[in-house]
Amino acid sequence: MTTYLAFLRAINLGAKRVFPKDDIRRAVESAGFDDVVTHLNTGNVRFTSGMRSRPRIEEALERAFLADRGFDVPTIVFSAAEFAALAAEARALSAARPGLARHYVYLLKDELSAEVAAQVEATSGPLGEMVVSGRAAHALLGPGYADGTVDPLRAAKLLGVATNRNLNVVSGLAERWCTSTD
């Protein structure tokens, strides 16, 4: 059995896309996954499965979420080992840039082409820097960043299906849920 982490996009943002964590857990279990745990009410889920195909896992979860909620819930899945590596890289990027105001990690459903990755990184400017690595894009925001501004570098539209978490959440979930490298 492999441990996976799933990140749900665009839930609990308004009255019409409500998906409480207990309902998420129940839907993941109903899709046939085991050892399901949620964190907060923001669409972070850990589970185990014998399935090895990430796209098949994402499809199974998205079908279960649609059946449960009646609306599409884009879902991005990483193995625990992949997510641990992603979190370590995120911490290293932040450590190499002292004085950041914020570090958001966009978790990508699909890896970007080299051309699109270059376009994302070209959105870097006075407010911060975008760094693309695998299925993650890092918004490294400097002191000029206005707290609470959504997508200040205007890169999100280039990322395809993605959701973001701040560095503290990424690090915390990796520490809590990625203790083994299965």
Description of the structure:
With 182 residues, the chain is an alpha+beta fold. It has two domains: 2-79, SP0830-like domains (Alpha-Beta Plaits); 81-177, Alpha-Beta Plaits (2-Layer Sandwich). Helix content is 34%, strand content 26%. The protein has helices at 21-30, 54-69, 80-95, 114-121, 167-177, and strands at residues 2-8, 34-39, 44-49, 75-79, 102-108, 128-133, 136-141, 162-166. The strands form two sheets. Strands 2-3-1-4 form a four-stranded antiparallel sheet. A four-stranded antiparallel sheet has the order 6-7-5-8. A hairpin with a 2-residue loop joins strand 6 (128-133) and strand 7. Helix 1 packs across helix 2 (54-69) and helix 3 (80-95) packs across helix 5 (167-177). It starts with a strand and ends in a 5-residue tail after the last helix.
Could you name the key traits of this structure?
182 residues, Alpha-Beta Plaits, 2 domains, four-stranded antiparallel beta sheet, globular
List the helices and strands and how they pair.
Blueprint: E1 2-8, H1 21-30, E2 34-39, E3 44-49, H2 54-69, E4 75-79, H3 80-95, E5 102-108, H4 114-121, E6 128-133, E7 136-141, E8 162-166, H5 167-177
Antiparallel strand pairs: 1-3, 1-4, 2-3, 5-7, 5-8, 6-7
